[in-house]
Amino acid sequence: MVLHSRLLHELRQRGLSVAVLLPGLDARDLEALESEYGIQFVSTLLPRGRKLQLSNRIKPYIYENIRENPALWSKHIRVVKGVDGGGWWRHMAHVGFAVNRIAIRFAGLRHLLLSAERASLRCRRISSLLERLSPGIVVSTYPVNNFESSAIMAAQEAGILTVGQLLSWDNITSKGRLIAIPDRFVSWGPIMTDELGEYYDIPAGQVISAGVPHFDAHINNVRIRKASEFVSQMGLAADRPYVFFGMSSPIFSPEEIAIVEWLAHKIDSGAFGEDLQLLVRPHPQNVEGAMMDQSWLPRLESLQSDRVAVDFPILRRSKLPWDLEPRDLGKLVNLIGGCSICINSGSTLSIDAIVQDRPVIVTLFDAHSSRPWYDSARRIGDYIHQKKMLTLGGARVARSFEELESAIRRYLANPGSDAEGRVRVRERELGVCDGKAAERVAEALAGFLKAAC
Predict the structure, then answer these.
(1) How far apart are CA 313 and CA 158, in angstroms?
(2) pLDDT tens digit string along 210-260?
(3) CATH of the structural domain 217-430, one choice from 1.10.1740.10, 3.40.630.30, 3.40.50.2000, 3.40.50.1260
(4) Largest separation between any pair of C-alpha atoms in the chain
(5) How far apart are CA 172 and CA 123, in angstroms?
(6) What are the b/e assignments for 342-357, b being 16+ CB within 10 Å?
(7) What are the DSSP calls for 357-372, one per residue?
(8) Distance, CA of 180 to chain centre
(9) 3-state helix, strand, coil in the chain (%, to 5)
């Protein structure tokens, strides 16, 4: 959101300097990043140990009614069932749930546990680093993270203004409680602003709704000619329509590969007409990282034909998670812009496509399998952020192959279907959607800095 948008450029245009604090990078990594981006990168570490791992796992049990939050509840069940974690974490999940039943009833206990949590996350290294850097403001993009919580606390104790600019639309409702709450916020749009008030009693006057800098590319960098060039490079016909299927991690949609295979065979056989093509893009989490499942990759490669192509994301070998090549990001926004329909199983890709007014289908089923809810793509539709977006009517939900086929036929026949819903999604999720979010965020940060000084 920061490095792959115009936000750094906009901050420099306002005469501001930027330092990025990252955990655990060595001198060579830092030097490479500084050379590429022309700003200061600083690395430090939190103290290592089980207490921090434990802290990250048990936070939701202390502060949230996890039984009422589908995202947190499914995570709990997955641990209890042994899907995510071994015997130690299964035991801790049982203990955590028992604590949760008590903690949600007694505010004093929650306050005591919060104090212990904050004490465990205080870090002298970060405090000393901030003292040396002497920033005017400290901005956190993922304050639920232990490292960033430590930085927020250290800044606040030093009298430095802190700002939360949240990374994703699910950070408030699906990731557990923020331990350290920034003084000010820059939100995506009205939904996020409302959630900050609902969950943290943040007054609207302390929040600036500015949009999302990395979505600006969907408006500013998309050209019909570019999309055609990328499609041709992948062996598809540039003058024919195509469906863009953006895959998720197998953790969220374990049978998605079977849905992709079904769709590929349908399109290859001409079930949707002789012109329609399919372009499949695995999520970076499919390709590398803790949630990857590379067993899917040969199955994807075997689907390629003159009507089906696979676009593997280009990941750089850096220490930054999901660090796509800038040219790959340019390709992604153009491929979305050129598609007739965008399909995904409940990821942010729905918003990416709706920014460009592309019809969206969300696949919330498990192909021919009957998986339990906690291990099924069905659960994603129950997540609070996802349900809010779907309620606005900007995307079609497919809960079976029959519904998927029907939705595809509907959008092919009438691409304008649900256009009003897509307008509502843009307005509620992103506020003003004009390709100038980076300018507004930079202006907001500059304003906060001026007020702090």
Answers:
(1) 41
(2) 999 999 999 999 998 899 999 999 999 999 999 999 999 889 999 999 999
(3) 3.40.50.2000
(4) 66
(5) 24
(6) bbbbbbbbbbbbbbbb
(7) T--EEEE-S-TT----
(8) 20
(9) 50, 10, 35
For CA atoms 20, 25, 27, 30, give the dihedral sign.
negative
Quick one: DSSP state of residue 61?
H
- Beta sheet of 360-363, edge-to-edge order: 308-310, 277-281, 242-246, 341-344, 360-363, 396-398
Q: Identify any residues that bridge with 315 across adjacent strands, giving them in sequence order.
A: 324
The Cα–Cα gap between 124 and 47 comes to: 9
- The structural domains of the chain, with segments of one domain joined by +, span 7-15+130-215+437-452, 50-119, 217-430
Query: What letter does residue 374 receive in the DSSP assignment?
Result: G
Is the domain spanning 7-15+130-215+437-452 CATH 3.40.50.2000? The answer is: yes
For residue 401, what are the CA distances in angstroms to 242, 434, 437? 19, 36, 38
Please give the Cα distance from 245 to 398 (Å, whole number). Answer: 14
368-408 pLDDT tens trace: 999 999 999 999 999 999 999 999 999 999 999 999 999 99
